[in-house]
Amino acid sequence: MQVLVEPVARLMEELARLPGIGPKTSARLVFHLLRVPAEQVYALADALRDLRARTRFCSICFNITDVDPCAICSDPNRDRSIICVVEEPLDVLAIERTREYHGLYHVLHGTLSPVEGIGPDDLHIAELLPRLRAEVPVREVIIATNPNMEGEATAMYLARRLAGSGVKITRLARGLPVGGDLEYADQVTLSRALAGRQAME
User: Using an 8 Å Cβ cutoff, are 146 and 94 in contact?
Assistant: First the structure.
């Protein structure tokens, strides 16, 4: 005997495919949607439909946008001589929240991962190279991939590909987080913090 009606079971199955949502969370979400006013459910459905219909990737930096080129690439006040290379669009949001960076971006949409069969051709690496010779020549590329195995491999690959281009290649500094205790820091973090130490003024 089937306990769940087909529409409920189907939505639970679809929600469970989303990252970070397992069967229990998807069940809670579905039963929540059954209790709220219909307008809220229809508003969610419209937002999901709009997400697919009205968003695209910027043809220059590959960030998510609703206009092409995106607002960052078309902003005349951005420093066009610096490109920050990130893994995902969420990384652009994180850096923009700091209000410290005023250059352009290049979104790879992933990292190199031989285990998962992701190679250079699966990322937006080839599209970065022509950008270095734009109207305003790029003087610096900041590699801002995550400090994990895949991010490090991608950073090293990018550094090799960009070597000889005449462009300065930098990597985000890494070290101890503000508010962190030395006793809880791992060996790699501590060694990077020591290597990246700065003079106190």
Answer: no
